Amino acid sequence: MQIEEKQIVINGQNIILRSPGRQDAKSFSEVRDITYRETYFLARYPEETDFTAEAAEAMISDIAERREEFLIGAFRKKQMIGCVMVLKEGNHIKFRHKAVIGIFILQKYCGMGLGRQLMEYAIENARKTELEQLKLGVFDDNVAAIRLYEKLGFREWGREPHAFKLKDGSYRDEIQMVLFLS
């Protein structure tokens, strides 16, 4: 699904929110790779992913063809600085009404309201589809993200203890959250 371009201003900087195109594949791949190195709040460590520009291009093209799934990239001067993804859990009849939402942003753009703007625009566009709910998982110590999701209307529906084991041997619980779109 293609998303209509929207211009926003964050800390005096013009940011464009739009569907990434094939021309953005290299930037998309690089931003994902950088964010994996910047935080442990994502599901993988950098060495566990091989998300090449070619893989990014295939993903972008594939999702653009789907009816209720989409990517929204945040671009500053044509360079991607973050992205939100809405991907269906499955196409089986019992799962068609819900999707998983995920977000990643370069660390230097965190704490400025960009995450909120990306999430709000994703929710707005999800409401234009036949989706009824968005789900996400968040590390229990990612307090800023949890607060944002709650402000956007997400509610905790479950918690998986010790869902993530970090390299240092410590564990983090995963909080599962849901937003009903209707």
TrEMBL record:
Lineage: Bacteria, Bacillati, Bacillota, Clostridia, Lachnospirales
PROSITE patterns associated with the record: GNAT
Pfam family, one: Acetyltransf_1
UniProt keyword list: Transferase
Domain N-acetyltransferase: 29-182
GO molecular function, one term: acyltransferase activity, transferring groups other than amino-acyl groups
Name of the protein: Acetyltransferase, GNAT family
Membrane spanning residue stretches: none
